[in-house]
Design goal:
There is one protein chain. α2 crosses α3 and α12 crosses α13. The protein contains 21 helices and 28 strands. The chain folds into three domains: 253 residues, Rossmann fold; 179 residues, Rossmann fold, CATH 3.40.50; 167 residues, 2-Layer Sandwich (GMP Synthetase, Chain A, domain 3). Strands 4-3-5-6-7 form a five-stranded parallel beta sheet, with helices on both faces. Strands 12-13-14-15-16 form a five-stranded mixed beta sheet, with helices on both faces. The chain has a five-stranded mixed beta sheet with strand order 24-25-26-28-27, sandwiched between helices. Helices cover 39% and strands 21% of the residues.
Amino acid sequence: METTFPRLLLQHAAQRPGDPAMREKEYGIWRTRTWADMVRMVEQVACGLHQAGLAAGEHMVVIGANRPRLYATMLAAQSLGAVPIPLYQDAVAPECVFPINNADVRFAFAEDQEQVDKLLEIRGQCPGLVAIYYDDPRGLRKYSEPGLHSLDDLIAAGTAFAQEHPAFFQSEIEKARPDDVAAMFFTSGTTGNPKGVVHTHRTLLDRGHAGAIFDNLTHREEVLAYLPPAWIGQNIFSYAQWLACGYVVNCPESAATVVIDLKEIGPTYYFAPPRVFEGLLTTVMIRMEDAGYIKRKMFHSFMELAKRVGPPLMDGKRVGLFDRIRYAAGDVLVYGPLRNNLGFSRVRVAYTAGEAIGPDLFTFYRSIGINLKQLYGSTETAVFVCLQPDNQVKADTVGVPISGVEIKVAENGEILVRSPGLLKEYYKNPAATAEVLTPDGWYHTSDAGFLDAQGHLKIIDRVKDVGRIRGGANDGAMFAPKYVENKLKFFPYIKEAVAYGDQREKVCVMINIDFDAVGNWAERRNLPYAGYTDLAQKPEVYELIKDCVEKVNADLAADERLAGSQISRFLVLHKELDADDGELTRTNKVRRGFIAEKYQLLVDALYSGKTEQYVETQVKFEDGRTGTVNATLRIVDTRTFTPVKAAA
């Protein structure tokens, strides 16, 4: 698109000044900001930042939850030709040091006391950081740190400047060009330091616009912005597409109120990673198990019908009259109330991405009338590479290349992408840039996969993670750890899984149970437990998880290429994997290599034939304190199945 973010803001304000642009829930009340309000706020912040010394080409960190003033600050920086860098609000202080120093950051926006404390803690390690502006003043009244100012003070100064220089804001916006740098996003850094992914106005807006055209998005959509703004997925949906389409972005009061806020807003366009959809379904199933006999019976009966009839109806296929009538009855009695309870009554398009979603989970949502689809993309591609067209939705693919995208598969199975949305570069890292971008414009995704006969892309795993079994009956068989892990996570009782097997004779897995789901399961069976560690090691829980593992093995046996990836042994970890302990990235991706080093004792026990292993692990609590968790973990053998030969 031949425009920039600030120009689009002015365009929407000129066309629809009184229409809602953003809503924010505060103290239980939704407050609306119109497009005219947003322009006024952005101008005030931009003028204030200009007076403070923020210059074109500089970087400015923004750290906090989705809030109108956070997005206004990003737009204000872009209006001056500066580059906003959103950081994860749940990142611990040391994780912010590298991005701030790498990008030579002088100015930072912090949402509240928690984020201010974080920045003040690392200030000694970030000598360039001279100014911190906070939004929420609660708890900060007695702070007297040099360079610490409230956003209200900045706005007051900017308002005075704007009155004296009424043409300044508009003239600054006119200086920007579509190919200027618009934003930088730091990757999650599964290995080594994170990399700064540089995007221009053109790349981000082009992909936002292409996605909007694909699904006929208009300014009438309602979106709930509840995921971290530092994640490019949320940034695209609540920022780039917000300005490309002009729809309404709604900011929940807090993470704790998202489910309630979802019901109140009733979004028409919804996006979430699989773990969110898993959590919602787990909550539903727990409540149904606690319901009365008649309700349970009716729910399960209608859900059996929905799984068979719902997806074909969603895809516009022919369904018998009797089934249509029964499904309509189910919609009145079960599916409609369930959609309403989830907050999805008005959803027209729902997308999931980031990880593979289980076929059963995917089918559940589509069967009750929610148009859930998958997309494929990454930070480097500005998200939108492949999308699933209506009536062509498959549980095992991520859709077709959308407008402007070319895909080819390298000899080693790696997917290469050429698109108008590709990153400009990795900041200050030409070597890394050269590794992923070819001279003729192809981006190495590092994902292994293939295009099926209908042109839909299927992802198998990360190229570097696809390995081989060595020795034993499956010598030479393909091993795809992420594929195995995702199959395990399809079960509501399994929250995380970490699979090992490359260059080994068998596959072994470490598992995190879902504490809520398994806890509810245990309570219904009068099985007492004292916390996560105790519950995880119950023999009954091991039997429950073993059944899930063996179902995965039976499924893998039916795939000739991956039958050798069947799981031979597993254990249930004594603690939940946690980003604060370095075991997950901030986007909740498993850091498999780090976990292998940290729990080398357990990996060795899995492969040495032991039936139990004592382990003691240091953990970090939310308040910053550290402690230890210890337990003797059971190790269990599982049944594997003879591979099913493909028909000749």
